[in-house]
From TrEMBL:
This is diguanylate cyclase. The chain crosses the membrane at residues 28-47, 53-75, 87-106, 112-132, 144-163, 183-202. The keyword Translocase does not apply. GO terms for molecular function: diguanylate cyclase activity. It comes from Roseateles depolymerans. Gene3D superfamilies: 3.30.70.270. It comes from the Bacteria. Its EC number is 2.7.7.65.
Length: 402
């Protein structure tokens, strides 16, 4: 009992401290409460020598039952973004407390069987969600699933032990290796699950930070540095595997007018709708990045000129057909111009040269009246500087991928 008390006290303190750091917005709060409830539950059970039996048994086991439900609530919130169904969250602890009170009249070995089965049942919703959607979330959640399964198994073992050795369960302070070990092991597993849950929360924060460092917050596209790094990677792979790589620069037409006419937030909505429209036409291996403002790039591995032109023409038509509905109900349309270049493996074009060429192609598309696609021949000489490129564009920044 002392081991469990100190274990849950340590877990509670660590969760509480973790919550005061950058993890405060996560679901650790519910687990912290669950851990305190389990700790107080065990304190009440341990005080049965001083307190009336009904008080320590119902209060202690009841608090442990509520603590287990809180753990499952935390797992559900973490994995699904929603808590347990309300009827279970409130109903399960209430029914558990009633059952525990009812079991008081039973012989001790039967009460042990009943309470062990009750706790094991309360753990099931947490295990279920961890083995389902939780299995594909953070890796640390798998260790939480495993430890909760071990805790449930140990509780079941305790029930079996009590059924087969009722003589070991004659009075509360009777020592028995079988019942002591199963009890200790099941709750040590719960403590282990708590530490696994903290790790899963850290894993989630790390993943969010990684996403924030590599993606654009408004559109969810890769940011410029990441897209640039992937372009270089795909060029290298294209050379090695002797396959062409398509590079596309997309620029929304007269986007300043969209902002000026409909407002900046309508412009943001247009950018999001545009990205969704483009993305649904891409293959999983294609890369879409936001190069800046209303400019986006596509890196299309193993794509020849015919394939890239067809795709970009479809994108242009799709964008033209989009009806963008702003929050105030206003509907408006946008168009896009695109420059396309194909890097042939034997040409050994650098990312900088490719960008200069695609920039020229976009300039042609804009100059020809916008809402069109211009395919640039990669054999055309690339100018040494950005002279003649799309006016107003910052030159290609080779350090963007650094
Ligand atoms: N709403 C919104 N507007 C943006 C964002 N990023 C850039 N813009 C706007 O995009 C506009 C780009 O304007 P310009 O570079 O003049 O280009 P344009 O009006 O699209 O004209 P062309 O490209 O020549 O067809 C500017 O008004 C920027 O403020 C953004 O994240 N949200």
């Amino acid at each position: 009992m002392l081991a469990l008390l100190s274990g849950f006290a340590m877990l509670g303190v660590q969760l509480w401290i973790a919550r005061r750091s950058r993890l405060r917005y996560l679901d650790l709060g519910v687990w912290t409460w669950g851990s305190w409830l389990l700790l107080f539950g065990f304190c009440l059970l341990a005080s049965r020598i001083f307190l009336p039996l009904w008080f320590s048994a119902v209060g202690g086991n009841g608090l442990i039952a509520v603590g287990i439900v809180m753990y499952c609530e935390g797992i559900h919130r973490h994995v699904t973004g929603r808590g347990l169904p309300r009827w279970w969250l409130w109903g399960a602890p209430a029914v558990a407390c009633l059952l525990i009170a009812w079991m008081l009249a039973w012989p001790l070995y039967l009460r042990t069987i009943g309470i062990s089965l009750l706790f094991a049942t309360l753990l099931l919703p947490g295990i279920g969600v961890l083995l389902g959607p939780g299995w594909r979330a953070e890796y640390s959640l798998r260790s939480v699933a495993l430890t909760l399964i071990l805790a449930t198994g140990s509780l079941l073992l305790r029930a079996v032990h009590a059924a087969r050795h009722p003589e070991d369960y004659q009075h509360l302070l009777q020592s028995s290796l079988g019942q002591g070990l199963t009890f200790l092991f099941s709750f040590i597993c719960l403590i282990g699950a708590g530490f696994g849950f903290v790790l899963a929360n850290f894993e989630r924060v790390a993943r969010r930070m990684e996403d924030m460092a590599s993606t654009d917050a408004l559109t969810g596209c890769l940011n410029r540095a990441t897209a640039d790094a992937l372009l270089r990677h795909e060029l290298e792979r294209g050379r090695r595997e002797n396959t062409p790589v398509g590079f596309v620069l997309l620029d929304l037409d007269h986007f300043k007018v969209v902002n000026d006419t409909h407002g900046h937030s309508a412009g943001d909505t247009a950018l999001q709708c545009f990205v969704a429209e483009v993305r649904r036409r891409l293959r999983a291996s294609d890369v879409m990045g936001r190069w800046g403002g209303e400019e986006f790039v596509l890196v299309l591995p193993s794509t020849d000129q015919a394939g890239a032109s067809r795709l970009v023409e479809q994108i242009r038509e799709g964008v033209q057909a989009l009806q963008i509905r702003h929050a105030c109900g206003e509907v408006f349309r946008i168009t896009v111009s695109a420059g396309v270049v194909i890097a042939q493996p034997h040409e050994h074009l650098s990312a900088e040269q490719l960008f200069t060429l695609v920039d020229q192609a976009l300039y042609q598309a804009k100059g020809a009246g916008r809402n069109r696609v211009h395919v640039q021949d990669s054999a055309a000489p690339a100018p040494a500087s950005s002279t003649g490129a799309h006016p107003g564009r910052p030159p290609f920044a080779p350090d963007a991928s650094a």
